[in-house]
Design goal:
Largest sheet: 2 strands, antiparallel
Shape: elongated
Order of helices and strands: HHEEHHH
Number of strands: 2
Helix content: over 70%
CATH architecture of the domain at 3-112: Orthogonal Bundle
Length: 178
């Protein structure tokens, strides 16, 4: 199998395409969240804290020196706080989305449970007919007033069967004479 053919089969699988769509939508969603945090959420928070722009907050380790032409060395903890808030917003959005999907699955599962049961298979139908026939044959003598006794199959004409039959007859005769 050629590499091109294997690659084509790999790409054509549904899971790979679903994953690609998810990554593209996730990237777009990330841009929306970044804009939300930087332009909507953080300005009011900065205003409450005294007109502070969080993206400009930093801890300067070494100031810039124009004479030596060195840049400033600083820890940009304000940008880190923005990133944490972005992460929390994405986490809440994903949580709510998963919760919604689980709720829809539970509703779908409940609908299938509430739906009529599937038609019985041919074997189940046959077994139900046999069961119903047995119930009917047992109930028919009882309705007629007779005792429903199981009917034994005819005994074979073996010597043992003949001896048992003969002994039973003798016992009955002996019981009548007394």
């Amino acid at each position: 199998m050629s590499v091109v053919k294997e690659f084509r089969e790999f790409i054509a699988r549904g899971n790979v395409i679903d994953l690609a769509v998810g990554v593209i939508i996730g990237a777009a969603f990330g841009k929306i969240v970044t804009s939300l945090v930087e332009q909507v959420v953080m300005p009011p928070i900065g205003l409450l804290l005294g007109s502070v722009d969080f993206s400009d907050l930093k801890l300067i380790l070494k100031p810039a020196d124009a004479a030596a032409k060195t840049e400033e060395v600083a820890v940009l903890y304000g940008a880190f706080i923005n990133t944490i808030i972005q992460f929390l917003i994405v986490a809440v959005a994903v949580f709510l989305m998963v919760k919604l999907v689980n709720h829809l699955r539970r509703m779908d599962a409940q609908k299938t449970e509430d739906a009529a049961p599937a038609a019985p298979t041919a074997t189940e139908t046959l077994l139900m007919e046999i069961r119903d026939g047995l119930k009917a044959s047992r109930a028919a003598p009882a309705r007629a007033g007779a005792l429903a006794a199981p009917v034994a199959p005819r005994a074979a004409k073996s010597p043992e069967a003949k001896a048992i039959k003969k002994a039973t007859k003798k016992a009955k005769k002996a019981g009548k004479k007394k």
